[in-house]
Protein: CRP-like cAMP-binding protein
Organism: Bradyrhizobium daqingense
Amino acid sequence: MPNPLTRKLELFGELPAEDRRLLDAVATGRRSVPAKTSIIQEGDAPSDVHLVLSGFACRSKVLANGQRQIFAYLVPGDFCDLHIFILKAMDHSIETLSPCEMVAIPRARVLELTGRPAIARALWWSNLVDEATLREWLVNLGQRDAVQRIAHLFCELHLRLASVGLVRDGEFSLPISQSELGDTMGLSTVHVNRALQSLRRQGLIGLESHVLTIPDIDRLRKFGGFNPNYLHLEGGKTDRSPTGGVRPG
Amino acid sequence: MPNPLTRKLELFGELPAEDRRLLDAVATGRRSVPAKTSIIQEGDAPSDVHLVLSGFACRSKVLANGQRQIFAYLVPGDFCDLHIFILKAMDHSIETLSPCEMVAIPRARVLELTGRPAIARALWWSNLVDEATLREWLVNLGQRDAVQRIAHLFCELHLRLASVGLVRDGEFSLPISQSELGDTMGLSTVHVNRALQSLRRQGLIGLESHVLTIPDIDRLRKFGGFNPNYLHLEGGKTDRSPTGGVRPG
DNA sequence: CGATAAATTGAACTCTATCAATAGGTGTGG
DNA sequence: CCACACCTATTGATAGAGTTCAATTTATCG
C-alpha cells in the first residue's frame, strides 16, 4: 500500500520501482500530533522536512492585530517545508487543524530522494502545482463572493483528496471549523455560516459533523467557477474526463 | 553594467565571474513590446523563456464573466515562465502593462544557465521568493482593507524596484492605471481612486503622472503592515537595516 | 485639435462585518 | 450521571466597506 506521498507524486508520472520503494520507506517513524498544534513557527529554521500522512494541517500567518490568514491546506502527501534548503527562515507558520500523523524527514534523507531524477522532477511539479494553487486562491479572494468562494474551495479539496484516495461516494472528511474556514477565505465566521447554509439550501453540498458531501460535483464546479487545469493533473496518469480522472468509489 | 537579472540574482549571494558573464550575455536580442500586449496566453506551451528587462508586465487570469485578477507584477529581472520545463501548459496569461523590453531565451540557453550550481540555487531562491510574495498578496486580499492593501503593495514595489536600482529619492515609475490596480487588489476602479486619495490626503504617498513618491517609507510600512521578511533579502549581500538594504540614490 | 482612455465625483445599493445573544456539543471533574 | 466550562454553530439586528451606475473632468496620443 503506497503512502500518500508516493501516490501523489505518481500523478505526475510513473516512478521507477526503486524510487517508489524509497518514497514508501520514508513514512516510517510517524508520530501523532493533536489538532491545533504548532509544527513550525514563522522565523524558525527547521532542520527536518515535515510530511503529512493523515489529517489536515495548514500554512498561516498571524498579523499584529491578531487576524489570521490561512493560505494553504496541507493534506496527506504534502510536504510542509521543502524550502529549508534555500531559505534561512520560515516566513510563515505551520500548524495542524485536525489531529495528524506526520513524519520528520532529515535533510540527508531528502537529499537522497532529490538525487533521484524522477523524484526530483515530481517534487518540482508538485511545487509548481502548489504555486498555481496559491494563484487560484488569489483569484478566489479577489473576484468571487463568499458563497462561490467556498464552493470553489470545496471543489479543489474534492479533487486533491480524491487524488490521494480520500474521497468515497462524493464524501470526504473536512475536519475544520467554520472559523478556520473564515480565516482561509477572508470572511467572518458569521458570514461563513450563512454561506454554508446557502450552499446547503441550494442542494450543492451537505455538511454534517465534519463530513462534506457533494451530490453533484459538476454542478458545484459550475457554481464556483472551478476549472481544475491549475492542478496540472492532465499530463500524468489521470485522464481528461470532466472530473479530472477522479471517480466515485 | 549588469542587467537586472544578474543584479537580482546577486541579491541572494555573490556569483562567480563566469556565471555573471553568462547571465549578462543573456540580455542580447531584446525586443520592445508595446503596453497591454499579450506575451503568453493561458493554455500555451511556450518554447522559450521570457525575461523582462524594462517596464512592467503581469501574470493574470480572466474569468468567464470577464473579471480579471492580476496576481503578480513582473518587473525588470523577472522571468515570466520558467516552469515550461515541467508543466505542459500555462495556467495563466502574461501581458505587458507598460511598454517593455523583453528577451526570449531558448530552452537550451536556460538549461545552460541552470547547469551552473550558483545560478541554479539563485533561481530556486528567486522562485521561492515569488511564491512567498503570492502568499503575502493573499494575506493582503484576505485581511486588509482597501487603503492598507494598496499601501502594502506600494511598499513591496518600492523594495523590489529598489533592489534592481529603479528607485531614486523615494520615487519610482508606476506605469499602471487605476483600473489595473483594481484588478490586482480585488477592488473596483472607483474604490481604488478613493483609496489613493486617502493615502495622498494622509501624506503617505504622492502619485502624479505615473510617478509614485513615498516621502517616508517607514510610515507607509507601518500603515500597511508591511514586513519585508517574505522577500528574503536578509541572507544575501543586503544588510539588515530597516529599509532592507535599500538606500535612496 | 479631436478622439479616446483615464481619473474623479456623487448617490444608491449590496455584501460582509460586527455586536450580541442563544443553542448545541464535548470533555472534565465530582 | 450530572454540572460546569468551553468551544462551535446559529440567528437577528445594525453598521460599514466596497460596488455599481452614471456623469463629468482631466490626460493622453495621433
Q: What stands out?
A: DSSP finds eight helices and ten strands in chain A. Chain A touches chain B through 38 residues (CB under 8 Å).
